[in-house]
Design brief:
The complex is a heterodimer.
Chain A: E1 2-5, H1 6-20, E2 24-28, H2 44-48, E3 53-55, H3 60-72, E4 76-80, H4 91-98, H5 101-104, E5 114-119, H6 134-138, E6 144-147, H7 151-163, E7 168-173, E8 180-183, E9 197-200, E10 205-209, H8 214-226, E11 231-235, E12 238-240, H9 244-254, E13 257-264, H10 269-281, E14 290-294, H11 305-308, H12 312-322
Parallel strand pairs in A: 2-3, 2-4, 4-5, 5-7, 6-7, 10-11, 10-13, 13-14
Antiparallel strand pairs in A: 1-8, 6-12, 9-11
Helix pairs in contact in A: 1-7, 3-4, 8-12, 9-10
Chain B: H1 50-75, H2 89-96, E1 104-106, H3 112-118, H4 122-130, H5 139-142, H6 153-168, E2 174-179, H7 186-197, E3 202-208, E4 211-212, E5 215-216, E6 236-240, H8 244-259, E7 265-270, H9 289-296, H10 300-310, H11 316-339, H12 358-372
Parallel strand pairs in B: 1-2, 2-3, 3-7, 6-7
Antiparallel strand pairs in B: 4-5
Helix pairs in contact in B: 1-2, 1-3, 1-10, 1-11, 2-3, 2-8, 4-11, 6-7
Classes of the chains: A alpha/beta, B alpha/beta.
């Protein structure tokens, strides 16, 4: 076991993958000498050379499209998108090429790309640096989407993503890069990449979170237990596909479901989870599923982001709602819309 | 690094003139079939003797006949759509026959003549257009990526593939085909940035057929398209795209540059789309017959026929051989199209992922159950 930060755990996982497979390449803006703006590729170009850790021109579609070409040639590119809000120029290549090539070629061409995306808010940045675009990609068939919440998963799952023959988007909660945790670099993965993890067991409410809000959800569970409410926290880990079996098993036990994410609410992952769980175990639900999410707004200026980001108290407000306690989210009267 | 095309002063063409006729291009055979010497490019085709020229003629005759047959099949309801290549035979054969098997092609949807050069079978050639699959062939069996529908996206794939060639220490090359319209796309421009920065062994082959559906090339560019590449640090050449010999010379030179570690080349093959954009298009709404007549006089096959005649090589026997080969290919194409087995419902779900996927597995299971409810009914 080694104590390391979230960010360093990703670096260690990248290094391990590059040592084990000479076809693994890293591509992105400033990933070379600088080590990336978040230093996630720190030292890798020095150790593996500029042919394997490739500083690219400032063109995200260009990075993605050339990564596709390299994958055609048998390479396993790991693409770093510098910030969440910078991924959109690459959207066409991701959706029209990366996601579809395996289907298009009836399995002849595999594109084992890993697309790393630092995402989410809470770091006081200007526009385009704090977004949560995961639902665009979970809605796109042919992609796998994961999000990590702790250093051990960060280390293990970056290697699982690179080893996958399917393209994987790996969403890194940038505000957690400096959180420390124990990482066992020798341990075999505890879970497949597609599995969710029950973080804290509970019997009254199921609370589903992923990425940056997992620690917040866990804190909320502790706070709720002080009030005698037993919250089961699930770290989704995989966003596409979602491990609904694990969520369903929990909801069959608790009968109540709260979902939280930073991304805007409408059409988001919370909607998919609420709908799927309702379809699967409607008769076990004691209350309609509740979403505690970012609002349907462009990401707000830094001095307003605390209003937008779900925090411990807003999550507890959602927990209160599914327990039929007083809550701002309770359906009352006939509000328009 | 030599840049054959000098930078031109931009010349505006307010009319839909469709091309830049005053700007020079490399031509080795005139439309009348006269072989004209060229001090720079003759050496690239000095091995092309009469017999080789006859083969190139047959290739062009075959793909023209295939193209016609496919158009007919679409009109008969056997294909959903077809993008005719009529008029572009020299551009496709001249370049396609310059490649070696280990090179890799990233094309658009109109390069069915190039696919023929790569050895793509008739059934595979028809598969996409019959609607049986999203791609016709196994890319690795012919070293050609599937037809690309997103305009210009494949230029980046070629640049990236070429970056891989460099890393492998190979002297293979990648070639990307795209049209004049694609040169307005960001992806084509980004591909040139990447290829130049990494000196990637890639050939950008721009088939300037004057029209992007209904939009003339003058809407895409105010200078000859080849003039853009030097701005990226990429040598470029403008070639008569209806002259199979000139196209071959230009492509061979570009491939040689790539193989010898001197990076990318941009080729603008000036040609004309004699047919519609696809069988769903109606070009009479946007262009004049007069323009078509002008280009008919520059036909790629006629000029090689004239040259062969002047050499005494276009005998009755040869003409019969050429048309026999073309007719046989068309018959093979028709049989392959009509004999192609329909896809089965399970193909809907196949190969979305290379590993099991819980969402899709569930949907497939439910749909199988749904379909099994019709078991025993006729015509399901």
């Amino acid at each position: 076991m080694t104590s390391m930060t979230f960010g360093k755990a990703i670096t260690a996982g990248l290094r391990r993958a590059m040592e084990q497979d000479p076809r693994v390449l890293i591509m992105g803006e400033d990933v070379g000498k600088l080590g990336g703006v978040f230093r996630i590729t720190d030292g890798l170009q020095q150790d593996f050379g500029p042919q394997r850790v490739v500083d690219t021109p400032l063109a995200e579609s260009g990075i993605m499209g050339t990564a596709v070409g390299l994958a055609f040639r048998g390479y396993r590119p790991v693409v770093e998108i510098q910030f969440d809000g910078f991924i959109y120029p690459a959207f066409d290549q991701i959706v029209s090429q990366v996601a579809k090539m395996h289907y298009r070629t009836r399995g002849a061409v595999k594109l084992p790309l890993t697309i790393r995306v630092p995402f989410g808010g809470g770091i006081g940045s200007p526009e385009h640096h704090s977004e949560s675009p995961e639902a665009y990609f979970t809605h796109t068939s042919g992609l796998r989407v994961i999000s990590v919440s702790n250093p051990q998963d960060a280390y293990t799952m970056i290697q699982q993503a690179i080893a996958s023959d399917d393209p994987v988007l790996y969403f890194e909660p940038k505000r957690r890069y400096h959180v420390k945790g124990e990482v066992d670099e020798a341990a075999a993965p505890q879970l497949p990449m597609g599995s969710a993890r029950v973080l804290t067991e509970g019997s009254d409410v199921t609370l589903v979170a992923y990425g940056p809000l997992v620690p917040t959800a866990r804190d909320a569970a502790v706070a709720a237990s002080d009030e005698g409410v037993s919250v089961e926290v699930i770290d989704l880990r995989s966003l596409a596909p979602i491990d609904f079996a694990t969520v369903e098993a929990s909801v069959r036990k608790t009968g109540r479901l709260v979902i939280t994410h930073e991304a805007a609410q409408s059409g988001g992952l919370g909607a998919e989870i609420a709908a799927s769980i309702t379809e699967r175990c409607f008769e076990y639900l004691e209350h309609a599923p509740v979403r505690v999410t970012g609002f349907d707004i462009p990401y707000p200026p830094a001095r307003l982001e605390s209003h937008h980001l779900p925090d411990l108290d807003r999550i507890l407000d959602g927990v209160d709602c599914v327990l039929d306690r007083p809550s701002s989210l309770a359906v009352s009267g006939s509000a328009a819309g | 690094m030599r840049i054959p095309v000098s930078l031109h002063t931009p010349v505006r063409h307010p009319e839909n003139s469709g091309s830049f006729p005053t700007d020079p291009y490399v031509q080795l055979v005139t439309p009348d079939g006269v072989r004209t010497p060229d001090p720079l490019y003759d050496r690239w085709v000095e091995d092309v003797d009469g017999a080789r020229l006859q083969e190139l003629y047959i290739d062009m005759a075959v793909i023209r006949r295939i193209d016609t047959e496919a158009t007919v099949l679409q009109r008969q309801g056997e294909l959903g759509l077809w993008p005719p290549l009529l008029g572009q035979e020299a551009a496709q054969i001249g370049s396609g026959r310059s490649l070696r098997a280990s090179d890799f092609v990233f094309s658009s949807y109109r390069e069915n003549g190039v696919a023929y050069c790569r050895g793509v079978g008739m059934e595979d050639l028809m598969r996409v257009w019959r609607g049986n699959a999203a791609a016709g062939w196994d890319p690795y069996s012919v070293n050609m990526a599937p037809t690309q529908v997103i305009i210009g996206a494949q230029a980046l794939h070629a640049a990236g593939y070429a970056m891989g060639i460099t890393r492998d220490g190979s002297d293979d090359a990648a070639i990307s085909y795209f049209g004049d319209g694609a040169t307005s796309q960001g992806d084509v421009n980004e591909a040139m940035v990447f290829a130049a920065s990494y000196a990637a062994p890639v050939v950008f082959f721009c088939t300037n057929n004057q029209w992007a559906i209904s939009e003339p090339v003058t809407l895409q560019a105010q200078v000859p398209i080849a003039n853009r590449a030097p701005g990226f640090g990429i040598p470029s050449i403008r070639v008569d795209g209806n002259d199979v010999l000139a196209v071959m010379a230009a492509t061979r030179e570009a491939l040689d540059r790539a193989r010898s570690g001197n990076g990318p080349t941009f080729i603008e093959a000036v040609t004309y789309r004699m047919g519609p954009h696809t069988t769903a298009d109606d070009p009479t709404r946007y262009r004049d017959d007069a323009e078509l007549e002008q280009w008919r006089a520059k036909d790629p096959l006629s000029r090689v026929q004239a040259l062969l005649e002047s050499l005494g090589l276009f005998t009755d026997e040869f003409a019969a051989t050429a048309s026999g080969r073309a007719d046989a290919a068309a018959a093979e194409l028709r049989a392959a199209c009509l004999g192609m087995p329909d896809p089965v419902p399970a193909d809907v779900f196949a190969h979305v992922y290379s590993e099991p996927h819980s969402w899709l597995d569930r949907q497939q299971e439910q749909y199988s159950r749904y379909l099994s409810g019709f078991a025993g009914e006729e015509n399901r």
